[in-house]
Hints:
By secondary structure, the protein is mostly helical. Helix 4 crosses helix 5. The protein has one domain. The protein has helices spanning 7-11, 19-32, 35-48, 80-93, 102-119, 127-130, 132-145, 167-184, 189-201, 209-220. It has 10 helices and no strands. The longest helix is centred in the middle third of the chain and has 18 residues, at 102-119.
Amino acid sequence: MKAQPTIYQIAMEEPGRGLAERLRVTIAKVAIEDANWCKSYETLIELLGETELKHPEMFVVEKGTRYNGPVLVKSADTDLDTAVAVLRKQAACLGVVGDAGDLDTVAAVVAAECWMAALDCEDLAYAAAKGPDAIGSAAAILARVCGEGVLAMPFDPDWPTLKFPMEKLLEAARRGRAWSDRILGEHAWGEVAPRVVTDIGWFAGGGTKTHEASLLLGVRMPSLTA
């Protein structure tokens, strides 16, 4: 596994043409413009050492958890506009406005809910604090909700190492399946699921909660029931 870039390095990258690539760099740039964030991040990097592969999202927090239940998909009855409003607002704060079709919108919402459950937080705004892989997946999710999602890929056959507790993730995925079925119909899950897994694992270097979540969902999504 190659060393992951620091948030500073991501912020200095030349963004690609795709919206997700541009958002990935933008999220990092916004983070490093915050002096308090930089101070905390530099302290972390100093503690880990220059060659350390670990980043915040690799740590398991036993106490003080932030994700204690659904954030976007409160129930299977949550309407689509209500569920996606937070993501659209977040994208707008990063200078991006756009609309996606219902399929991509549902997939982005389910992916965001799973992302928050896996990373134990309540908002995609924590992406930079969670590490490089978290930034990549947040960027892919926001790009999708704006109508420019990355190409959905087939499920990765690799099994996760399951270093981290993922009960909340699986519960969020089941809730997302029930909600997707109500909004789009059960037949659409076969198209929603690959989008969710792709976005969560997009640009992942590996060994983090984001990467593990993508692998786990890739194994479980095809047979996941509501």
